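User: I've been going back and forth on whether these two constructs are worth ordering. Before I decide, could you fold them both?

Assistant: Sure. I'll take them in the order you sent them. The first construct and its structure tokens:
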Amino acid sequence: MFRLDYFSSVTLLILLVVLLAKQMRSILSRSLTVFQSELTNREFENKNILTRKSSVEKENSILKKRLEETIALYDVTKEVSKFIDESLVFASFKEQLKSHLQVDDVQFIRTRAGISAYDNYKVLPLNINNVPVGYLLTRGISLGEEEKFHILATQFLLAMKRAILYQRVQELAITDSLTGVFSRRYFLERFEEELKRSKKFEYSLACLMIDVDHFKALNDKYGHLVGDVILKEVCRLVKENIRQVDIIGRYGGEEFCVVLAEAKINEVNLAAERILKAISSQKIRAYDEEVKLTVSIGIAVYPDNALQIQALIDSADQALYKAKQSGRNRIFFQKNPL
């Protein structure tokens, strides 16, 4: 009896051990499966994190590049705002545009009438306070770069606004702030008065258009400060070689207009020759530079060439063009009425 109970107990114990071992293996197997699953999930999550990190870094790099490019586009304002002459503003803008974008050509025109001359150009109207000031015409800009172009165009418009305002202020002034001669607006008023007097008393009158030869090249070579000194010295020399009753005004950038009233042809010619010789015979000292320069002079006479101010100016301007064509440092009289 005792042996039977003993063996029964042992057998039961063995069965319990076997069952316990199976349960332990099952538990360990499940635990291992769970662990492996968690490990796999964590590896997957780590890969996702690394992928997302790489993606974020790439996006940040792209955004940083775009930001730098955009800032560079807005920095264009610094360059184009160095100038207050409209033509120089556009020349600077054109240079900046081509350094930032792929573009075949860009033009700026003031009136809509000129657009028809540019086939296959995209047209961007420019307005200041809802008032049209001109049109930017471009050819060859890709669709992907149009946003950049519009940013650059905005900067150009800001610089043009400044140039236009400066021009208007200059027009309201009596004298040119740089050279001290009459401003264009006031000069034309005086010219009108002198022409009326000449018509009333049947006097002759001469209009001289004087332009500094190769001024743009001199300006580019020596800089704008030297260019300013050149213009001031040219005006000084012109005034020294005309009468006090004669009128001189700054008509354009490096172009000046002189009115000689009650002057005969030989007197006009002598005055023009004095101006030409005075300027060409000496070097103009500007800061550390000594500049040799010449001017060209075109002359129109009332009543021989024209009867109205604008026609006289146009006639003198045409004569100036011929003086430059013939070699510069020349005087050319308009021979025929326009």
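The second construct, handled the same way:
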Amino acid sequence: MNPGNGHLNGQLVVDANACPVQLEALPPEEILTGAPQAGIAELGTLGGAEYGLWEMSVGTATDVEADEVFVVTAGEGTVLIAPFGGAPARTLHLIPGSIVRLHAGMHTTWTVTSALRKVWFAPHTPEMA
């Protein structure tokens, strides 16, 4: 499977933890501790949604989120969500099996203690195409 082509290449099943995800250095302004890297493998589309894999290595980094739902498949860490939409700041503990909903515009801080991998689902947007 070519993880960057946006398709499962006709496959009906892929091992989410064995599929290659090419990691790249994060922008220096996003890194708080360590030297974390991250990457995605787009797998396809379904009913107007994109889906794929995302992985981040050990370290701490900030991000501004897009709309998505994800399921952690491997690793461990936390995501601190800054106050958003009237809700206070909160920290989510991430382990395999965690299902999380993030909203566009959320400011987050990811602290990964064991390489974290997730399967994500997000509305199709032109910049994702």
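Notes on the second construct follow. The mean pLDDT is 91. The beta strands are 24-25, 31-33, 37-46, 49-56, 59-64, 68-81, 90-94, 99-102, 107-123.
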